[in-house]
Design brief:
The chain has 38 helices and eight strands. It is mainly α.
Length: 753
């Protein structure tokens, strides 16, 4: 700011921003460095003709006997003609035209004078340099709160609610200072809870300040009174928006045919923030305007119009989220997220059928963006309100609501089982292609791979290209889980081609990950990393945290097996952070397990054990966490084996075998067999177990360093013929070999007891 006030082309600088943003304070601080600066308070003036006289008074020049504005300006120019003074014209907004006229004339006649103005709107003079005074960023807002809180409560060292309080107050310095002062009598939790009534709460300010700056209401009311009737009415209507709004949304929701000029006027007067063609009210201004809206408008009708608009928007977006239009429409829905949530809340109370429709239309967006977890309570409440029977024509919407309700990990098992059965019945009742084919994805996420349902899925998919690619992907994953890698890779390759044809990045990425791991299994790590990198580029475009975490973890596995433990750990750590952000406990557990593997393979067994135990704690209570539980137990067993504790290792592997029995995939059982091979009592038994693992998986796991180490040890102890015979016997036995080992372990334990 100091540099700006000395720039040759910045003789008029205007600080703009909402009330309470700190414009006056910033202007005064900037002027302190100037040797000839004067603060001119314009707020007390009711007549713009008195502006020159206010400046004369600030300069200490007596008015004399003449009283016209021209005389005052002449005398002022005479006083300033040869000086390089800086005039701080504070609070110009209520006299903006007169202040602008005065500044223009003065600067024209006094070439050495500079003007620093504060106003909630620009003066609108050619050559004016605008400096928006934005609300404080989060860190600065919290520091200000703590500083002011300690003044009234010495020793206050913060509280978990401080960031929420500062955010709710829009980072406005005045509001933050008023709130912090209330800690003299309120606890932090009470302060946060009472912010819904912020104008009553923040009604005790500094008595030394001007009345308009003593309370939060006075600050906002000062600006409100400067609006004309049309501006006030639109401001009241804009309170229906929970976030920012486009011109089109304002036109359709507020019923204002041509709102552009009014919106721009409100933005110029600091009632709205504008960015990227979207208009947003600060929460404090929204709360004030909402009080007026409640007195003057039919707010129920306004909320109905708002919900109807966002329901139409979701209908337009739904098919485009599954093709080449994914990126712009994901960005659009993300920008509208707060208002879509507000529309859903309103419909849940006013129109349950409409709420079902909107929830169904948004379900795929939530899944792509990792937002589905936050909808679980709302889905459960809506389902309870609707009852056991879907409204006419809304079976798919009802099913999607049920699937959202089943996405949580804290439901009642009996109620969830009944809901599962109800959804099965409803899906069986559908006789044509789905209007919302992502039902198939979300149902499979809830239930796991179910080959028995393939015929129904084929019927419900119809001829939709996206649904066809989805079916191929499902068939590929089922074959993968069943230990048929050739069939899996073929189906996934078809699915990838299908998703490429539709332009669906999510589908492509979900095919590229397993295809990359198949390339890794064949020993072609360069191809594997290329496929995984392509998938990562796609999911990063989508900003899909769960899928990004999956791909990072898989890439980390490849790096770890190539010997790059540091690079692998970096991938696992990033995957953990993303999974936690999305609330995906099972994905975080998988990445944490990867960190355990990296530590163990680097020789740090103590750290590995801590990481594995934390991963086990993160695992969720759902079908796809079974695999992670098995792998974590195996990791704990391999850690014990590395420390020379063979019996402890066998016990961990036995627990893994028990857990693998609950898995929908044979891959967990294969890994358990290979782990048991590492501690088998005879080399022949170890070879049998390695064969069982290969038979279950459909191919040997030679890319796994743990398996390779066991195999190398066996080749040193067995003849090629003996190894091959035992290995082939294991391939034939497959799961029976693991069951046999588990039974023997139990017998040994019983005998020891």
């Amino acid at each position: 700011m100091a540099a700006l006030l000395t720039a040759p082309d910045a003789r008029l600088v205007t600080l703009t921003g909402p009330g309470g943003a700190g414009k006056t304070r910033l202007a005064v601080e900037a002027a302190r460095a100037h040797p000839d600066a004067y603060l001119v308070e314009l707020a007390p003036l009711a007549d713009g003709a008195r502006v020159p006289y206010a400046v004369l008074a600030a300069l200490g020049v007596r008015e004399g006997l003449r009283s016209t504005a021209v005389d005052g300006l002449d005398r002022l120019c005479g006083a300033l003609e040869d000086r390089g003074a800086l005039l701080v014209l504070d609070n110009c907004e209520h006299l903006v035209e007169d202040a602008a006229r005065f500044a223009g004339l003065l600067l024209g006649r006094c070439p050495g004078v500079r003007v620093l103005a504060t106003s909630r709107e620009a003066l609108g003079i050619t050559g004016e340099v605008l400096v928006p005074v934005e609300p404080l960023p989060a860190g600065a807002a919290q520091r200000l709160f703590l500083e002011r809180a300690r003044a009234v409560r010495p020793g206050f060292d913060g509280h978990a609610c401080v960031p929420d309080v500062c955010r709710a107050l829009d980072g406005l310095p005045l509001a933050i200072e008023l709130a912090a002062a209330r800690l003299r009598t309120l606890e932090p939790e009470e302060l946060a809870a009472r912010l819904d009534d912020r104008f009553r709460l923040l009604s005790r300010g500094d008595r030394t300040k001007a009345p308009r700056h003593r309370t939060l209401r006075a600050v906002v009311e000062w600006s409100w009174d400067l609006l004309d009737a049309e501006e006030r009415e639109l401001a009241e209507r804009l309170t229906v928006f929970a976030g920012s709004a486009t011109v089109r949304a304002v036109r359709e929701v507020c019923g204002t045919p041509d709102p552009e000029d009014l919106l721009d006027s409100l933005a110029e007067k600091s009632f709205l923030e504008v960015a990227g063609g979207r208009y947003r009210m600060l929460e404090t201004i929204r709360a004030f305007a909402a009080e007026h809206a409640a007195r003057h408008l039919d707010t129920d009708a306004l909320r109905d119009a708002h919900a109807a608009y966002f329901l139409r928007l979701a209908e337009r977006a739904q098919p485009l989220l599954r093709g080449g239009g994914q990126l712009p429409w994901l960005a659009r829905l993300a920008a509208e997220h707060a208002d879509l949530d507000a529309a859903l809340r309103h419909l849940a109370g006013a129109d349950r059928a409409g709420a079902l429709r909107l929830m169904a239309l948004l379900s795929w967006f939530w899944r792509l963006r990792g937002l589905h977890g936050e909808q679980v309570p709302r889905a459960r409440a809506l389902l309870a309100a609707v009852g056991d029977v879907p409204p006419p024509g809304l079976v798919e919407e009802y099913v999607l609501c049920a699937l959202n309700a089943l996405s949580g990990d804290d439901g009642d098992p009996a109620a969830e089982e009944a809901l599962h059965a109800r959804v099965e019945t409803l899906l069986d009742s559908l006789d044509g292609p789905l209007r919302l084919p992502y039902v198939l994805v979300l149902w499979s996420v809830v239930t796991g791979p179910r080959p028995a349902a393939n015929a129904r899925a084929l019927r419900l998919a119809g001829t939709d290209p996206w649904a066809g690619a989805l079916l191929d992907m499902g068939l590929g994953l089922q074959a993968r889980f069943a230990g048929r890698p050739g069939e899996a890779e073929e189906a996934l390759t078809r699915a990838l081609a299908g998703f490429r044809a539709t332009g669906d990045r999510w589908g492509m990425a979900n095919c590229l990950e397993p295809l990359g791991m198949y390339a890794h299994a064949r020993g072609d790590d360069d191809a594997a990393l290329g496929l995984l990198d392509e998938g990562l580029a796609l999911v990063r475009e989508l900003d899909a945290p769960e899928e990004t975490a999956d791909l990072l973890r898989s890439r980390g596995v490849v790096l770890l097996r190539r010997g790059d433990a540091a690079g692998a750990a970096d991938h696992f750590e990033r995957a953990t952070a993303l999974a936690r952000t999305a609330g995906a406990g099972d994905k975080a557990a998988g990445a944490w397990r990867g960190l355990g593997d990296a530590a163990r393979l680097s020789g740090d067994t103590a750290r590995a054990r801590v990481l594995y135990e934390e991963a086990l704690r993160m695992c969720a209570a759902n079908w796809f966490s079974v695999g992670e539980i098995v792998r974590v137990l195996i990791g704990l067993g391999r850690t014990a084996a590395a420390e020379g504790k063979a019996e402890d290792a066998r016990e961990w592997f036995r627990q893994a075998a028990v857990a693998a029995g609950d898995s929908a995939s044979v891959l967990e059982l294969a890994e358990t067999a290979e782990a048991l091979a590492s501690v088998a009592e005879t080399p022949e038994r170890a070879a049998v177990l390695l064969g069982a693992g290969a038979g279950l998986r459909g191919a040997p796991a030679r890319e796994d360093p743990d398996v390779a180490r066991t195999e190398d040890a066996l080749w040193a102890r067995l003849s090629p013929e003996a190894y091959t015979a035992a290995f082939e016997r294991g391939v034939r036995l497959r799961a029976a070999a693991v069951e046999e080992e588990r039974g023997e372990a139990g017998e040994r334990r019983d005998a020891a007891g």
